[in-house]
Protein 1
Amino acid sequence: MLILSRKVNESIVIDGRIIVKIVRLEGEVVKLGIQAPLDVPVHRQEVYEEIQRSNVEALTRGRRKAPKLRPGQLSAPPATAGLRLSARSAPKPGQADSSSKDRPE
């Protein structure tokens, strides 16, 4: 572990992309400012550890096995399964189509 001494308003640079600045001291508490690219996640250690625990739990939680498919069996139901399609009847001769009422002629 590298140990550095810094005073208020002094900074360190990590990898040329991350700047850690000592913002202020409040008793034994050090306030840090961290400037990092958006693609670099920055967390307090206890938050990071909780994220890791949650990720491991999500991966190891009892998951159902996917059903085995027989040859020729679809992996998913067709897109129209369970949908009711309403057939619109064609207008009778001499009768206007009801959807054409709103359209300008």
Protein 2
Amino acid sequence: MLNRYRESIYIRVKKDQFHILNCKTNCEHIEISTTPFSTQRLAIGDFFAAIKTLSIAISNVISKSMFKLPPIIIMQQQYLCEGGLSGVEERVLLELTHNIRPYKVYVWQGAELSRQDILDQLYKKNR
């Protein structure tokens, strides 16, 4: 019931960068890491550099209200994900969002979602 008041944040992981969309406010931000966090084999090879970059990116799109509800996060890795993600890669994506203190985190594997797909909660239907 309260989910309609929550912000839905769509995070796409690319090589050394995060593309973030706040679907409630339609605010978008791309944050390129000053310290590369991707390696030749892993999209998130340096966990702490990725956390720092994600924190900066999230602060640019999430509302600053004191009374905001924890957001719903949809994570999608779009780099080095051919054949799907391993359990370890999914866990890394989940752990990256810990500092955001989300209400719920979904790891999406599939075609890129549109803002409307997220508002329609497509990420829940095709799990």
Protein 3
Amino acid sequence: MKSPLESLPLFHIGPIPITQAVVTTWAIMLLLVVGAFLLTRRLELIPGRRQAALELLVDTLDTQIRETTGARPAPYRAFSGTLFLFILAANWSSLVPGAEPPTAQLETDAALAVLVFLSVIWFGVRSRGVKGYLKSFAAPNPVMIPLNMLESFTRTFSMFVRLFGNVMSGVFIIGIIASLAGLLVPIPLMALELLTGLVQAYIFAVLAMVFITAAVGDHAHHRNRQDAETDGLLPATEESASPPTERDS
């Protein structure tokens, strides 16, 4: 069994080597894009079974975002949902014969971690502005600037290491047992690998949302709550629900 640090190219496009993990990544991307198009091309006012199932999945995702971060799901739904589905499909691709899971490769996990790092900056700047986002590194006082900047890199690195270690170890264990004990013995481990892949995708997406929420800041959460109260998604607070008094008018 070759080292996970070694990626042998299948072919080259010009000077660029294309590995098995890259081909699997392309297949997953194509599957997600085509699947999303086919499942959402005929949405109706009165949903059928397929559309009702999709709406249930979206509602579940919105609930997870709202309960995890306290923010309104709409601005983050597309990013967190796509991130979760891609990692889940990449993790489960290890059970496809001949496929090499992209998340068992260093470069894929590093790219996903960098994507989360850049998304934190994007959402933070979009919510607070450049000046406000940079000021967040000085909280609670300017002495913490180096530590806060270091934290933004170390937490990204920890996400990368966690995902790579868990997926790669599962692939190794199944491969070793299959080579020693035959094809039928690893079946329970494959079922466990499905659960592990689901959990790792969920943890990665939740951590990404937690980091994004921290960068967005409390004022955006307050605005999101006000919007949610207006839409009837959250009960109104006493301050917003109480009628104006004579002194206020």
